[in-house]
Amino acid sequence: MMTNLALVVVDVQNDFCPGGSLSVKHGDKVVGHINAMIERFESEGLPIFFTRDWHPADHCSFHEQGGIWPPHCVRETKGAKFHTNLRVPADATIISKATKADKEAYSGFDGTDLSARLKALRVTRVIVGGLATDYCVKNTVLDALHDGFEVMILKDCIKGVEVRKGDSAQAIQEMKANGAVMIQSKDAVNKLRRRVTVLSSS
Ligand code: VGL
Ligand code: ZN
Q1: Contact 49, 92 (CB under 8 A)
Q2: What is the pTM of this model?
């Protein structure tokens, strides 16, 4: 019943957590809840995907190149590593994005094989959590919906950059308006444990 479900964990990397170069307020607070979800997916044998921002040192989004962000998630650096406490199973799939200097890619689907990989596994529904609500989570969710996946967002597993106050709230409205469903991770974990259909009916 659950076999068409996948978990997509977006950019839970050091640079987006407190102490990082593009830190999201309370970004690290999502880790515990996401780990619980990951454990549940592991128990069910369901596929788990981790996206990561994986920039070259001269990425176009960085200030020095005229971009809007401080340097962050430079590939192979500590800032680009997943948060130390994030549970990354050995058999999970890691999707690196925004890997080319001259192209920004907020969505995990942009310039990657994420959609093809999900479809190859016959996934039709994705559960999403991670950072940041107003950039990579938003764009990943909108692309997933556009590609025809049903999307559930873990409310307590997302945090925003909030360049402008209210950006996260607006992002959530936009994702919902496009068909995404919001759920608490605890409820999603319990439903999975009880093998109740998580989407559609919720
Ligand atoms: C992100 C800003 C710049 C994100 C990535 O992961 O949301 N935000 N690069
Ligand atoms: Zn970036």
Answers
A1: yes
A2: 0.96
Q: Residue 185 belongs to what H/E stretch? A: helix 185-193
Range of the domain at 47: 5-201
Whether 97 sits among the annotated catalytic residues: the reply is yes
Instruction: Look at ligand 1, atom 8, and give the residue with the nearest C-alpha.
Output: 135
- Per-residue pLDDT tens digits for 98-151: 999 999 999 999 999 999 999 999 999 999 999 999 999 999 999 999 999 999
**What is the residue-wise DSSP string for 36-73?**
HHHHHHHHHT--EEEEEE-B-TT-TTBGGGT-SB-S--
Which among 28, 136, 143, 156 is annotated as catalytic? 136
Written as six digits, the tokens of 162 are: 């909030």
* Secondary structure (3-state) at 100: coil
**CATH code at position 47:** 3.40.50.850
Domain count, the chain: 1
Amino acid identity of residue 139, one-letter, is N
> Residue 21 in 3-state DSSP?
coil
Tell me whether strands 93-97 and 125-131 are parallel, antiparallel or unpaired.
unpaired
**Sign of CA pseudo-dihedral 50, 56, 59, 65:** positive
Q: Return the ligand number nearest the Cα of 134.
A: 1
C-alpha span between 47 and 38 (Å, rounded): 9
Residue 189 in contact with residue 40, Cβ under 8 Å? yes
